[in-house]
Amino acid sequence: MSATVPTDSDRPLREWTYVLADETTTSRTSRKDDVITHAMEDYLKVIYSLQSQNEKVTTQAIAERLKVQSPSVTNMIKRLADMNLVEHTPYRGVLLTATGERAALEVIRHHRLLELYLADALGYSWDEVHAEAEQLEHSISEEFEARIDRALGYPTTDPHGDPIPSAEGEVQPMAQLLLADLEMGDEATVERVWDRDAEMLRYLGGLGLYPNASVTVVERFPFGGPLRIRVLGEEHIIGRELANAVHVRRQDP
Known about the structure:
Blueprint lengths: L1 E3 L13 E2 L7 E3 L5 E2 L1 H15 L6 H8 L3 H13 L3 E4 L3 E4 L1 H25 L6 H8 L5 H10 L35 E7 L4 H9 L7 E7 L6 E5 L2 E5 L1 H4 L2 E5 L3
Parallel strand pairs: 1-3
Antiparallel strand pairs: 1-2, 3-4, 5-6, 7-8, 7-11, 8-9, 9-10
Helix pairs in contact: 1-2, 1-4, 2-3, 4-5
């Protein structure tokens, strides 16, 4: 299915009008006759993700995220720029336009609502929902999205703690502080966990590092070494790579 993407950034996502389209192209149009395909939506999601992490959005960074070759990224960015979905300045990176950002946010909203529905209603574990939602996010209608939202009680975060964009395209600020940034003795609450590595999620889940869990840094080993943490009364040692995948909020003293 496909939809017409309005250039008016004030128009709610849920009001986008869906019409039938070739299932091999799908999605939305940024201008008359310009169809935003599933692949384009994936690019817009990645660009949004990189931007929200305050990273420079280069073709190399996009290629690494999507596991494609750099020339393919260059060609796609040109197409997205022609459709007024991104701005690309050579050697300075890629930025979403207002229209591109709203298209990205709609797909992200689908994805994160689906993740939560899979977990809460269908019993998927938190390490399974991302891959499943990736397959479904492009295909659901706005009515189905609205029914999931209502059935889940209008949630604001997904199973990994990532904010779910509202139907109007608003997104809650994300926690930027990392577990790796905490000092010895700091107590914090887990807010978000990086969700693209299922094996890592299984491991962190085994330590109890789910959103809303309390964690205390017991010891920081020197020279970039691991952390000793306490979760649910048990101590664990985790490396910096894992600690950098967990976003936290310091608890008040």
